[in-house]
Amino acid sequence: MPEAKVITLKINGQEESLHLPAHRTLLEALRESGHVDVKHGCGKGDCGACAVLIDGVAIDSCLALAWMCEGAEITTVSGLGNAENPHPLQTAFKELGAAQCGFCTPGMIIAAKGFLDENPDPSDAEIRLSLSGNLCRCTGYVKIVEAVGHAAKALREEGGEK
């Protein structure tokens, strides 16, 4: 097996040097370095719980090797906002009750963010399609779709991307 090496990842605007073996997935690297807002679901790209933004594009971090992301901007749900200054998607999920157990919520919000950056005025059908790679075992997705639509409207009214 190849030796471990030090790589530098830019996560939520902060550079982090990590000593990792070549086979370590981005999901594993993120969680091992304390980014537990990225959830480990299926480990094979089926559920979307581990979604992060890589240079603005939502990907399942279980499918990427950490070293392949060196030099990229990695954003987890914590990088979008916090309790004092939440992203409109985070606010909408909270206000509209779009989270039940909350396990899928970070991946849903990340997928929605990547989608809304490309399509700021989506239909409900487009929202459903954009989230089709994210599984939720608790809801019927109705509140999630409503929250993404609500956030899209809020973002448009704010005048753009946040």
Report what the structure shows.
With 162 residues, the protein is α+β, with helices and mostly antiparallel strands. The protein folds into two domains: 5-79, Ubiquitin-like (UB roll) (Roll); 88-157, DNA polymerase, domain 1 (Orthogonal Bundle), CATH 1.10.150. 33% of the residues lie in helices and 15% in strands. The chain is built from five helices and five strands. The protein has helices at 26-32, 88-95, 105-118, 124-130, 142-158; strands at residues 5-11, 14-20, 51-54, 57-60, 73-75. A five-stranded mixed β-sheet has the order 2-1-5-3-4, covered by helices on one side. The radius of gyration is 16 Å and the shape is globular. The N and C termini lie far apart (42 Å).
Defining traits:
5 strands, Ubiquitin-like (UB roll), alpha+beta, DNA polymerase, domain 1, five-stranded mixed sheet, single chain, 2 domains, 5 helices, 162 residues, 15% strand
Extract low-pLDDT stretches.
none
CATH topological fold name of the largest domain: Ubiquitin-like (UB roll)
Characterize the biggest β-sheet. Answer: 5 strands, mixed
* Percent helix: 25-40%
Instruction: Provide the CATH superfamily of the largest domain.
Output: Beta-grasp domain
Cα radius of gyration in angstroms: 16 Å
- Give me the side-by-side strand order of the main sheet: 2-1-5-3-4
In short:
This protein has five helices and five strands. 33% of the residues lie in helices and 15% in strands.
